Amino acid sequence: MKNAEKGIAMGVINTILTIILPFCSRTVLLYFMGVEYLGLNSLFTSILNVLNLSELGFGMAVTCILYEPIAQENQQKINAVLKFYRMCCRMIGMVILILGIAIIPFLPHLIQGSIPADCNLVILYLIYLSNTVISYFMYAYKKILLSAYQLYHVEVNIGSVCLLLQYTLQIVLVIIFRNYYLFAVMLPAITIINNIICSVYVKRKFPDCKCEGQLEKGEITELKKKVVGAFCVKIGNTVYNSADNIIISAFLGLSILGIYGNYYYIIAAITAFFAVIHNAIRPVIGNRMVVKDSKEVWTMLRKQNDIYMWFAGICSICFLVLFQDFITIWVGAENKLTDTMVVLLCIYFYVGRVSGIISVYQEAAGILWNGKFMPLISAMTNLVVNIVLVHFIGLPGVVISSILSSLFISFPTYLYIVFKHYFKDFSLIKVFVANILKNLVITVICGTVILFAVKYITVSGIAGLILKAIVCFIIPNLVYYVIVKKVLHKDFAF
Question: What is the pLDDT of residue 492?
Fold first, then answer.
């Protein structure tokens, strides 16, 4: 648990960096290059996220496989798994490279309107593609040991240093040379450095971990089942998080994508905090599921989910109240979306968090084969509805599609799988959902109170933003404390 706490602490520091540094980077790109370059960056990132579906969920599946031999100190099996994973990484890298090159002829069709005159679309895309592929042919397979041994904080520390170096160089190069190629080439360069540092650390920390030995046929079969399940999960998650940007670029243009990307960047940055929690506690949960009974795990799930949704509620309220003021100060009122879009984005964020903890438990338990087709159904449904709605109502349709897909397909699927195949008790679903609804009610109460309160803040600019932020922090915590501790303490798991 100490390693998990370290992971969360260092992950928070890393996430702060991933908020501040990209914020500075986007600002520099906007003012020195233009909003179209923000759109290009978002588009390439989304395309490569989709291509990473070729990873097939091997990392997640292999981590689940490693929990048991690590607990049993079975070094022979650990080495065999590591060898198998290295082979998979190299095959995956080749698949991504081939698919990535195959997409090149279709790139112009993914952009509505023109691109910046000084940009060669193919060259820039190949730079981004190389950044994705490099790790698979280098030492990415070794990072699996850091996760499996609950040393996530080490990987985060290395990542933080590399991020600082990457964004610093990118910002300096854009300011001095105003050249997007130099900005882009820093991505693969820093990725190489990150891989080398992680490899050296793992070699020194785990000298007995070597790529040798063979897995038994039954173990390979079980791993393949987990991989297929993880692949389906990854498709759903990727479409949910990445396809929106591609749809916006293809149907609405790079300028709209750039403006939308400013809002989405902030949401993604805060979502990264929740990802830190996921990555840090997943190995702990996986270990508890192996050594503890389901009743203890159920108690842990309730506590974690209550705290998780509490944070989600506070973040959603902050988005609702602060989004427009912040965007105005940051990039100007001309780059704002409508208030309706802000409300939709807040709902999008909150709904996305509803599945957060329960999805971690599915991954930690390795229940990836069961219900494997549901994420695919969710992904395809989201994509189809996305394309239909963007034709009729434009940008709001993209966000609405993601909300519906997550709320009515993804979340019920996670519930069904975890409570059927691990807890083996559907009656617990009612308790779990009831707690989520209680948290939702509290969030709505807090949001209503705060929207009323901030009307009396007449100060504008940065000072007004700070005052509203203070209100957004104090009132929700007071309301949560009073309602949860004083009124609903028997029903909540705090």
Answer: 43
Residues 6+ apart with CB under 8 A from 434: 491
Q: Which domain holds residue 118?
A: 1-220
Read off the DSSP letter of residue 112. Answer: S
Q: Tell me, yes or no, whether 42 lies in a domain.
A: yes
Of 176, 200, 220, which residue is a domain's last? 220
Per residue in 294-340, pLDDT tens?
A: 888 888 888 888 888 888 999 999 999 999 999 999 888 888 999 99
394: which 2 tokens? 């434009």
Distance between CA 389 and CA 398 in Å, rounded?
Answer: 7
The predicted model scores a pTM of 0.71
Contacts of 439 (CB under 8 A, 6+ apart): 306, 309, 310, 312, 313
Instruction: Count up the domains in the chain and report the number.
Output: 2
Give the C-alpha separation, 421 to 436, whole Å: 21
The string of pLDDT tens digits covering residues 8-58 is 666 667 667 777 888 888 889 888 988 888 888 888 887 777 676 545 556
Is the same domain home to 26 and 135? Answer: yes
pLDDT for 172 beyond 80: yes
Residue 273 lies in a domain: no
Q: Which of 394, 371, 81 is nearest to 244 (CA)?
A: 394
Residue whose entry in the numeric block shows the structure tokens 């403006």: 259
| Domain match, 199 and 62 both | yes
Question: End of a domain among 175, 204, 220?
Answer: 220
In this structure, are 63 and 211 located in the same domain?
yes
Contact 53, 235 (CB under 8 A): yes
Tell me the two tokens of residue 366.
Answer: 């390795």
